[in-house]
């Protein structure tokens, strides 16, 4: 899939920072807070996800740094456990998202081709199915439509096995990412959004890894 991004220079920014960049670009992300201590009142809708937020652990799941579908009592217990396991880390608490069809969206900056955007079947099946398609940035709405039609999950656009998704929202997401890469204040070196959850109503980026550096001033 997307090539591994070096963890030295430039680093992958923390997940909450990546999602802040996405939100500024008009892309929907889960409501959440980053904290070192659990507040008395967590002003989020439950259930929630709890994740370690630390640049030393870019692959949070591999180190046991992710807990999902937590109620209020479970959150307090799991937060205490996480604090013991990662005593010097911050933690991200986010609202869980409704079930939908999961996609992966990625961007890489290739030395030969420039920016390339990828769309594929996401979630835990990404590497199993290898159901992906690529386009060179910039793309337009026609390109976004073609990308969706290229992959097998496009069958959900018209309804498949009782499930239908909002593929117009997915097209708009691809265009927003395209615009973010071209017009954003940072030079994006890579982007890995997985899963991108698409429901009948909307699309939300549930997890994000982005590597950036400040854009050079060419004026």
Structure description:
Helices cover 25% and strands 31% of the residues. The strands form 2 sheets. Strands 5, 6, 7, 8, 9 and 10 form a 6-stranded antiparallel β-sheet that branches. It has 2 domains: 31-95, 2-Layer Sandwich (Dna Ligase, domain 1); 101-212, ATP-grasp fold, B domain (D-amino Acid Aminotransferase, Chain A, domain 1). It has 219 residues and is an alpha+beta fold. It has 5 helices and 10 strands; from the N terminus they run αβββαβββαβααβββ. Residues 1-8 have low confidence and may be disordered. It is globular, with a radius of gyration of 18 Å.
Q: Topology of this structure?
A:
Layout lengths: L14 H10 L7 E4 L12 E6 L12 E5 L1 H14 L4 E6 L5 E10 L3 E8 L4 H4 L2 E5 L4 H10 L16 H17 L2 E13 L4 E3 L2 E7 L5
Antiparallel strand pairs: 1-4, 2-3, 2-4, 5-6, 5-8, 6-7, 8-9, 8-10
Helix pairs in contact: 4-5
Largest sheet geometry: 6 strands, antiparallel
Total helical segments: 5
Q: What is the H/E order?
A: HEEEHEEEHEHHEEE
Name the structural class: alpha+beta
C-alpha Rg (nearest Å):
18 Å
Percent helix range: 25-40%
Question: Mean pLDDT, as a whole number?
Answer: 90
Ranges where pLDDT stays below 50 over 5 or more residues in a row are 1-8
Q: DSSP strand (E) fraction? A: 25-35%
Distance between the termini: 36 Å
Coarse shape: globular
The CATH topology annotation of the largest domain reads as: D-amino Acid Aminotransferase, Chain A, domain 1
Q: Based on DSSP secondary structure assignment, what is the total number of beta strands?
A: 10
Task: Identify the CATH class of the largest domain.
Answer: Alpha Beta
CATH architecture type of the largest domain: 2-Layer Sandwich
CATH superfamily of the largest domain: ATP-grasp fold, B domain
- Total number of distinct structural domains: 2
């Amino acid at each position: 899939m997307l090539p591994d991004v070096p963890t030295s220079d430039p680093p992958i920014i923390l997940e909450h920072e990546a999602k802040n960049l996405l939100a500024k670009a008009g892309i929907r992300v889960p409501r959440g807070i980053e904290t070192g201590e659990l507040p008395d009142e967590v002003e989020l809708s439950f259930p929630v996800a709890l994740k370690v937020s630390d640049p030393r652990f870019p692959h949070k799941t591999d180190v046991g740094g992710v807990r999902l579908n937590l109620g209020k009592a479970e959150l307090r217990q799991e937060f205490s456990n996480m604090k013991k396991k990662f005593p010097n880390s911050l933690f991200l608490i986010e609202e869980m998202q409704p079930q939908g069809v999961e996609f992966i969206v990625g961007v890489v900056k290739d030395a030969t081709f420039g920016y390339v955007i990828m769309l594929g079947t996401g979630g835990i099946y990404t590497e199993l199915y290898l159901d992906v398609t690529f386009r060179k940035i910039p793309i337009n709405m026609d390109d976004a439509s073609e990308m969706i039609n290229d992959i097998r999950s496009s069958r959900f656009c018209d309804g498949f096995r009782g499930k239908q998704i909002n593929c117009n929202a997915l097209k708009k997401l691809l265009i927003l990412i395209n615009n973010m890469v071209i017009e954003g204040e940072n030079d994006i070196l890579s982007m890995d959004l997985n899963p991108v959850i698409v429901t009948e109503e909307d699309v939300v980026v549930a997890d994000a890894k982005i590597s950036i550096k400040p854009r050079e001033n060419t004026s």
